[in-house]
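Hi R.,

Quick one: here's the adenine phosphoribosyltransferase sequence you asked about.
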Amino acid sequence: MDLCHVPATREKGWYLALMAPNVKGPNYAWLDPSRLYCHPQGLQDCVADLLQPFQGDAIDMVAGIDAMGFILGAAAAATLQKGFLAIRKAGHLCVQTVAQPYSDYSGREKVMEVRTDAISPGLRILLVDQWVETGGTMRAAIELVERLGGVVAGVAAICMENSEGGKWIQERYKCSHCVPPHLQPRFDQH
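And here's the predicted structure, written out as tokens:
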């Protein structure tokens, strides 16, 4: 798809066709959304679709998860006119942090951290990431927010797979994603 072309009719998720499949092998994610971010209307529509379920909700801050969640999270924060908090992989923040171990989508053990001075008790945070595959990364972010007294106002991602972890998150938190129901099985069975 041309990065300048905008379809005459733009249904929810039209921009998913901008994503590129993995051509590098099993050590990489199966789909790369970064090309979607290069398309101005695609990015705007993606962010609008992610935020639509939260219209009228109390959101104090948006937090994006390292690294691709920074793109959507910052765009969502700008749209909502809220601040943005980066939840980082361990070792990148030079300030006081709280850490949380987790297993990512590939089963690798990692540690995520967040600065301790950004979340005050009761602060309502919208968590944003590019993808929720197994749910391990998002659950770690949820744990960090809640350990610091914050409230998870919602979870948003381009895709939330119907994995065990994805279902756990969707059962407990208000969620938003961009994959229309008729395409969900395709994304779940990659």
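The domain at 54-188 is CATH 3.40.50.2020 (Rossmann fold).

Cheers,
M.
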